[in-house]
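Structure ticket #2291
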Amino acid sequence: MRAFAAIGIALVLTVTSALAGDFEDGLKAYKMGSYQKAMDYWRKGAAQGNAVAQFSLGFMYEKGQGVAVDYRQAAFWYRQAAELGNAAAQTNLGSLYEKGQGVAQDNKQAVDWYRKAAEQGNDVAQFNLGRMYQTGQGGVAQDYARAASWFRKAGDQGHIWAQTALGSMYETGQGVAQDYKQAVHWYLKAAEKGDSMAQYDLGRIYEAGQEGVAIDYVEAHKWWSIAASNGEERAGRSIRLVESLMTPEQIAEAKRRASEWLKAHGKT
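Resolution: structure written out below.
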């Protein structure tokens, strides 16, 4: 199970025109590593009720950028922005409640904030809400169908972990009709973006073959090799096992494909 996800400043760039100057100046300072100067600019906007500036202060307190890590201050600023409807702040406040950082641990509060952001279309919140339904946390009953629905919403927006999670649900038939082609579809989306778990799981399906997915040792070897290069510890043993079923020509082809993929993705 993947842990909660949160949102960084780089993903939150929309500000009101009246306060854009201070925020943009702060963003420039932030990108240059001048965190204290960035905070000075954002405090001005935050004091005037700008939700993006408030979110940004919360993020810096959470990560200890320009200030010592202070989860209470992070929660304070996230809450200010969240109550103004800022979806990124709602998501990160939810994650603080889930972790019990700066606030009392409270999965129900986490779900409430994730839901507010998810309903605004925030993909990170959608993934987190899907996890809560998948495990039955936060006062929601375990509901695989709702989990799959939220994972799909996030996955359609390109959220890698949601794509991997949805692939797993199609593979096991949790919350959706079991469909190995769909499992491969979603695993492949995440695998192409570099998710080592999806890469490993994709290799598993190709190695075993399933309804609608032919056995393909070359593709299995390829994806396990890529997963191994990304630190997936299970992949090494799997490669050795599948090689016992392959011809030297197949092994050479698998290695060539993996090498090409890694080169194309800047991994070599």
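Closing remark: The chain has a mean pLDDT of 92.
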